[in-house]
Amino acid sequence: MLKAREAVCNLPTYHPPLAGRTGLRLDFNENTVGCSPRVLERLRRIEAEDLARYPEREPVEAVAASYLKVSPQELLLTNGVDEAIHLLCQTYLEANDEAFIVVPTFSMYQILAAATGAHVVQIPAEKDFAFPRAAILRRLTPETRVIALANPNNPTGSVASAEDILRIAGSTPQAAILVDEAYFEFHGQSLLGKWREHPNLFLARTFSKAYGLAGLRVGVLLGSVEQISAVRRVASPYNVNSVALICLPAALDDREYVHHYVQEVRAGRERVQRELTALGIPFWPSQANFVLIELGDRHAAFVQRMREHGILVRDRSRDPGCEGCVRITLGSAEQTDRLLRALGETLAAIGARRQEVSR
Fold first, then answer.
1. pLDDT band at 359 (very low <50, low <70, confident <90, very high)
2. Helix H segments across the chain?
3. Can you give the pLDDT at residue 205?
4. How far apart are CA 18 and CA 170, in angstroms?
5. Which of 76, 226, 275, 351 is in the most buried spot, having the most CB atoms within 10 Å?
């Protein structure tokens, strides 16, 4: 009788709650206003022949490389960051190798690493979700082959310093160090190009967040020429669809659109964090396009009450160390106005007070 591999049978399942998402979408860290009008204009000019041909990735990789100021041989376009993680695991992990993740974090690191048969080592973040550099360094072994780090991290919004990450990369040259910079635009700091000093370092970026292309599924994996060449051996030559490849140059060309949206999100993040402080609601300072707040046993009531206001937020209370926590995505200035109105009313309605929640 046919049976899936044991590693696959033992995988945790990840079912994002995508159904019934009616209202202001502050639950999935997406761009809340949509992509650049230039992308929509390019979409309208797609012809039947464009869809009948197999997608050609390399010309658009050259455009992306120019945009990022790297060589085309240092990057690979991928079907979202999820595929970048998958390809990295397939390239460097074998059964019984070790893959490190710092929890809480993005669920797909664990799933895609464990699917290879590797042992996933979960290292808890320190107090207030600080990056556990010392704990990682203590746990390293010759079997450590992949370390996946979201920076800024999801769902916490916390960051690891460049010094800490490069120290780890230098301490374990046999391991692929993936730094997932999906929220780079909202943070503004990057390790771009550092693989030239540390050849085991990889960066992942996405065009789902700031660029508003989540539905097209396009990301990029960056690293040394030698290592990206190895990853290319695992990737399909047609991994990124034609529509995404057609639209990506238009998205990259409209820098002002992305800059304006990012500035509004950053301003909204500061406004929301100031309001949470005034209301006495614990939160963790964020460098991403979301804020994680703590509501204790009122977290479910908060999510439901916000939905009644037409605003979707994400319950993260099942993540390690996030009991009673809710994540709120930030959007445009107008959307932040609406969020703040609903926030105060909802917290008052559910009776949330500082003394009733604690870290």
1. very low
2. 6-9, 37-44, 48-52, 58-68, 80-92, 107-114, 133-139, 162-171, 184-187, 225-232, 242-253, 255-279, 299-308, 333-350
3. 98
4. 40
5. 76
Q: Could you tell me whether strands 98-103 and 119-124 are parallel, antiparallel, or unpaired per DSSP bridges?
A: parallel
- Its pTM stands at 0.95
**Structure-token pair, residue 206:** 């996405």
Q: What is the DSSP letter of 52?
A: H
Band of residue 19 on the pLDDT scale cut at 50, 70, 90 = confident
Cβ neighbours around 312 below 10 Å, total: 20
| CA–CA dist 111, 7 (Å, integer) | 10
Instruction: Yes or no: say if 308 and 23 are a contact pair by the CB < 8 Å rule.
Output: no
Residue 357 pLDDT class (50, 70, 90 cuts)? very low
| DSSP, residue by residue, 84-122 | HHHHHHHHH--TT-EEEEEES--HHHHHHHHTTTPEEEE
Distance CA 146, CA 96 (A): 12
Q: For residue 63, is it left (φ>0), alpha (ψ between -120 and 50) or beta?
A: alpha
CA–CA gap between residue 93 and residue 98 (Å, rounded): 8
Residue 314 pairs in a beta bridge with 327
Are the CB atoms for 168 and 133 separated by under 8 Å? Answer: yes
Whole-number pLDDT of residue 358: 44
